[in-house]
Write a structure and sequence with these properties.
CATH class of the largest domain: Alpha Beta
Shape: elongated
Number of strands: 4
Strand order of the largest sheet: 2-3-1-4
Structural class: alpha+beta
CATH architecture of the largest domain: 2-Layer Sandwich
Oligomer: single chain
Radius of gyration: 20 Å
Strand content: 15-25%
Helix content: 25-40%
Number of helices: 6
Order of helices and strands: HHHEHEEHEH
Number of domains: 2
Length: 161
């Protein structure tokens, strides 16, 4: 069972989303609390699953991942086994950063992050096309990133639902 959140929990989550390395003392200072209750709240947020993990967000260009492709997949078969099979196999590819099952004209949307068009071609030919049941693949390449966000906007009323 998940704990009920209050405004203090929401503020803690907001602060941690902005900077996961913020210290408990810094959070306590910003909230006008002492370290111990903040520490207890963070532990409860972790244990109840609100905080899944802490990560570092890297500069993709500095690590040579200069190209993002959004690839839509339409499967030939739509049985439960076919859908689950594609999900389980596709998420193992390191190039796929995100995988979503969709409604509408396509079955899956993949966010593929690679260094260049040649690497994408290799990924498509040697990995993605090796998966069974693929009917069609369409790719769109990112020309400009207008906004990329990792922090969820939090509203106490929505979180309580």
């Amino acid at each position: 069972m998940t704990a009920q959140l209050d405004q203090t929990d929401i503020r803690i989550l907001d602060l941690l989303q902005i900077d996961a390395r913020i210290t408990t003392k810094e959070i306590a200072d910003k909230l006008g609390l002492t370290i111990t209750p903040v520490s207890v709240r963070i532990k409860k947020l972790e244990q109840s699953g609100y905080i899944k993990r802490y990560v570092a967000i890297l500069d993709k260009e500095k690590i040579g991942k200069n190209l993002i492709a959004f690839t839509t997949i339409k499967l030939r078969e739509h049985t439960q086994a076919a859908l689950r099979g594609f999900e389980q196999k596709s998420v193992k590819f390191k190039e796929i950063m995100e995988c979503y099952r969709l409604t509408g004209n396509f079955d899956f949307l993949l966010k593929v992050v690679i260094s260049d068009m040649q690497e994408y071609n290799n990924f498509l030919i040697n990995k993605l096309s090796s998966l069974p049941n693929i009917g069609s693949v369409q790719s769109s390449f990112v020309l400009w990133e207008g906004k990329t966000e990792t922090a969820f906007p939090l509203d106490l009323e929505q979180v309580k639902r």
